[in-house]
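Worked example 4.2. Below are the chains of a multi-component assembly; read each line carefully before continuing.
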Amino acid sequence: MYKSEQLAQHLKQLIENKTWKAHEKLPSLRQQVERSGFSLITVMNAYQELEAQGLIYSKEKSGYFVAENQHDSAEKHVAINHKIEINSIVFKYLKSIQSEQIIPLGSAFPNSQLLYSAKLIQTLGQLAKQRRSYEQTPSLPPGNYELRKIIAQRYAMQGIPTDPSDIVITSGGLDALNLSLQAMTQSGDYILLQQTLFYGAWQAAERLGLKVITIPEHPVDGIDLEAFEQAILNYPIKVCLMMLNSQNPIGFTVSDEIKLRLAKILHRHQIHLIEDDVYEELYYGNKKPLSMKYFDQQNLILHCSSFSKTLGAGFRVGWVYAGKYSENIQHIQLMSTLSVNSFIQNALVEYLSHRHYEKHLKTLRSTLQRLKKQYFNYLNTHLPTQCTVDYYPSGYFLWIELPEYLDSTLIYQRLLEKKISVAPNILFNATMQNKNHIRINCSFEINTRIQTALEHLIEDLQQQIDLHLEQHE
Amino acid sequence: MYKSEQLAQHLKQLIENKTWKAHEKLPSLRQQVERSGFSLITVMNAYQELEAQGLIYSKEKSGYFVAENQHDSAEKHVAINHKIEINSIVFKYLKSIQSEQIIPLGSAFPNSQLLYSAKLIQTLGQLAKQRRSYEQTPSLPPGNYELRKIIAQRYAMQGIPTDPSDIVITSGGLDALNLSLQAMTQSGDYILLQQTLFYGAWQAAERLGLKVITIPEHPVDGIDLEAFEQAILNYPIKVCLMMLNSQNPIGFTVSDEIKLRLAKILHRHQIHLIEDDVYEELYYGNKKPLSMKYFDQQNLILHCSSFSKTLGAGFRVGWVYAGKYSENIQHIQLMSTLSVNSFIQNALVEYLSHRHYEKHLKTLRSTLQRLKKQYFNYLNTHLPTQCTVDYYPSGYFLWIELPEYLDSTLIYQRLLEKKISVAPNILFNATMQNKNHIRINCSFEINTRIQTALEHLIEDLQQQIDLHLEQHE
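Applying the procedure described above to all two chains together yields the following structure tokens:
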């Protein structure tokens, strides 16, 4: 056994037998060197090992502290991830499904035939002919003023008073998340994510070298507020990043009541939230679900959204409601992406100034609703009884739960050989605690090609289940 | 005096009296703690202070080393910058000159009336009408294949064998620089820049937390090869970032002979170079200057360029010749900007597939040459005799040298009150060693507005010089 392991073992006992209590400060590295007689390197390695095990946590310039007892918190399933490594997996996945030959059930993007409305294309066509559409210089942060004004008006219509100066235009929604996260954190900070969440959030955490605390989903409320508050109390969390509306990949939308309670917790602890709300417009009901931003009285929430899911992801135009963090975000933007294509911003201003967008959204919503119902009915009828799928009235994803003994990554790999893509768990959960879910994109009309793909999926699941049952008879 | 200062003072003497020789390893922190009796924090602070003074340097996982004696290297003016803080200055500057009311002599962008050719706008107009121009999903890294193929062919025509897979499309040239630098470095690494260089390079260094070694310009060769090789020998430089063609802001183009010698030094020491070559097409002569990439036999050079200076900066389309670093750069891209507007990429493919681009470039070059000559002749005739301006046959910048007692930042501020912008030294030199230069954009036709601006500039300079001479009579 290495010396550092010896020391770590010894310290672990002190924590487990509660000689050292939760949130108690550990001896400094220097003190520990003197106390233990081990070298500085040995002490550092031991502390880092304990941190990796989630037994202690570090605060910048303050040292190390005992984490909440694992047993105490186990019932709430708060998990710590010290080093995120998901980008390579996502990279390989996206490359594997990129070809047009692949049936895109695993795609993150809505069927493009439902986007890029005729009016939008007409607007782009007309503007593209005109020299004045190409601004003299690229639009600097925070982006096109008219576009920010229109976005601000849309917030205002939802009961969120907004000034154009609150908005920063970004290169799509992912850029909005990245910039917000970078503005609020430094390498080594703790952030909080939902346990199962859009891979872009995990990638951003990896890029910025952040430690991730996760809270589990709640079967009814969507978000487990008790686990959430406990995580906030137990860890020095700099910022949370969550999806509350049409959550990707699961699909649920958190109720207004839960959102209000979440807002109260945020305010009570003065915790910031980056709200990823890119599916906000894809609700099926009569009333648009409120964003968390609606409940924000103290500028604690950075609301990120984009036109990628409603007009087209190829435009790369998103935004963040940055409020008082606007200048900070612009500074980071100036050092990285600089600005957003100015022609597209001009074209969006022209298009959004008319009623086209609302009409387009209405059509888009009803089409997605019709398609999702069709997929749901089909899957609900034909999936093996051991699989379940929930219907949530928004967006274009279905999240299929498989028996626990199935590994969705293997299912993805086998279907890919048949030129069919599905999105496995591994993309949405860097902790890899659960592997028995797949996400299905249901924004494509069920033609022969899609029908065949669904049949292959169901057949593969049935085979794997049968195989398992045979082996365990 | 703090303990750490005491210790630093003591160690400094050991270095200065050559008890410790250049590149000798210092005692480890732990050894120094034992040897000196000071605490770990004190020793760390002392080492960091010596590093900040450039007396020692650090190598990751290897410890601290004595730097080349300052006296020995002083004649070559190699400088170290441990913490770059330029972004806020650039941010304020760009915001201050953004209004269309401001006469844009300080702009970095070429006059947009010379870009966005009629044929290009026609192409955009035709494609924008067509649904097929909007790809199904955003084009993932490395970007549109056809566009990469065209770019690869253009390299091949210049004698640089290139495969489309060598190229990664980026959101403009600045994104190309940022991605390349991020792929090649980690926070705390040393990089080498030219002493006076485009602010984007400094901003990238700041963003990534890099230490910057600078080498001075050479009055004849452009780059001082002796200083360059000395810097490489003296510091653990991870990568260099330089402009060799139509250097921004100075304007010089390094000769083929010097480039070949530079390439030999790079190869001898196996040092990577990120070559910022965004002005490559704006030469006035009959033959396009070679890029450093041309001399690269070992894939040590990442060549960055863009369409911003020839077709329009609003498009945000650049690229990097990444070669074997392509996948690494794509990984970083997937975690940050994700992709580049797919419609614009499609439109560029269409436009570049015909001979329009070459014709457009020919017109652009001759227009810029005519304008630069006009500006140069005017300034050379009317500037106070204490000011000098050199004519380099490329690009659209003139770099005016003022008497050393003038501060270009004050000149910029005074002219801004008259709604005239000029670009002061401070934007191009984070060390702020020189303050007596301004950059003038000469891509605008000399109409009454520009004429008045030039007169105001000359008048201000004359007044300041007169004032100085009066005070020092």
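Take a moment to check your reading of the output against the notes. The mean pLDDT of chain A is 91. The longest strand of chain A covers residues 237-242.
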